[in-house]
């Protein structure tokens, strides 16, 4: 007569809760992702953060402190800035870095706080869609901005055009 | 048969004026223990015990008093009871500590002292959790010496500086206080966790070990060091005072230095 005594913790595969392997299923890690994506994402956060500090404070200084300061900001001021390739590049870099930095940050938060894989997937789909729309739209605006729109040979009102 | 041996010095009774037993102050505490018994209920419950304890007592002594004198069904792990084996890590007043290293007088005895199992690992009964996922991560970083050279005939010599490099991370007792204090680990238990990284660090920076690159590759995983958010919960929880977050940062740097 023998009584089978089940091991209390590690070997639950006989008749215990966990049918295969020793580790409760929710703790089992996938076979491991090859590649260095997480490393580069981590590095990008630090490098883009440093660059963004310069870009954003430069942006704020030029817009709010120089010349007439905040009172000088209007449609014409923005039009003037985007006529200059330097500011086009500055704003483009700011847009892309801020968007990727922010997206990666929110991606991290989703990974850390969403508990189900399905929740993670859908939150990330929404996040990436929003990022693509904003980055594409922003880039388009910076490069195709026309302060003096003319439709069918007629100037639209509100434009800032040099006198003809 | 033979004459009685003389009483050892430590057992000689001291005269009353020198001091000794009976003079330790006592105080009353309420110990609020998180009880869980899956055979009775799926829901854990808080259970209060009023105890009279001494100024020299630790949380572990209070748990012993309950188990030995009040309710023998209370379950918790402890082995050495002196802060070396790392069995009795638990969440005391919301912080991960060793019950055997936490003096009751250092806690606020006016309020109930809460004792819970460590978080993030499946509770089995009362204060006992399933440590298997924790040890699995520990195993995965290969926490043993790997040396590709010939077996030496003498000990493997190392300079004082080389030994000093990983001294801090040799102190780990695998109590899981760090890993179970980490909010990233709480989410889904996928993160390797601070303890595994600390034990990898101990060999990665050991000049006698040849498998540092393999361990760095393991920790470059998506659930590896890059999930660390430097919240310092682990460094704060470590009963051995290991600078855990710093060790993780050093492993991150080592991976970066190797890749770039």
Number of helices of chain B: 8
Q: Numbering strands along the chain, what is their spatial order in the largest sheet of chain A?
A: 1-2
- Global Rg of chain B: 23 Å
Order of helices and strands of chain A: HHHHEE
Overall SS class of chain A: mainly alpha
Q: Roughly what percent helix of chain B?
A: 25-40%
Counted beta strands of chain A: 2
Low-confidence stretches of chain A: none
> Biggest chain pair contact, residues each?
A-B, 23 and 26 residues
Mean pLDDT of chain B: 92
**Secondary-structure class of chain B:** alpha+beta
Topology, element by element:
The complex is a heterodimer of chains A (164) and B (260).
Chain A (H helix, E strand, L loop, with lengths): L36 H28 L10 H8 L2 H29 L3 H28 L5 E2 L2 E2 L9
Antiparallel strand pairs in A: 1-2
Chain B lengths: L25 E10 L9 E10 L4 H12 L18 E4 L2 E4 L14 E4 L6 E3 L2 E2 L2 H9 L19 H6 L17 H6 L5 H11 L7 H8 L13 H5 L6 H16 L1
Parallel strand pairs in B: 1-5
Antiparallel strand pairs in B: 1-2, 3-4, 3-5, 6-7
Tags for this entry?
A: mainly alpha, two-stranded antiparallel sheet, 4 helices, B: 260 residues, alpha+beta, five-stranded mixed sheet, 7 strands
Describe this structure in words.
The complex is a heterodimer of chains A (164) and B (260). By secondary structure, chain A is mainly alpha-helical. Chain A is built from four helices and two strands. Chain A has helices spanning 37-64, 75-82, 85-113, 117-144, and strands spanning 150-151, 154-155. In chain A, β1 (150-151) and β2 form a beta hairpin. The longest helix of chain A is centred in the middle third of the chain and has 29 residues, at 85-113. Chain B contains eight helices and seven strands, in the order ββαβββββααααααα. Chain B has helices spanning 59-70, 132-140, 160-165, 183-188, 194-204, 212-219, 233-237, 244-259; strands spanning 26-35, 45-54, 89-92, 95-98, 113-116, 123-125, 128-129. In chain B, the strands form two sheets. Chain B has a five-stranded mixed beta sheet, with helices on one face. In chain B, strands 6-7 form a two-stranded antiparallel ribbon. The termini of chain B are far apart. Classes of the chains: A mainly alpha (164), B alpha+beta (260).
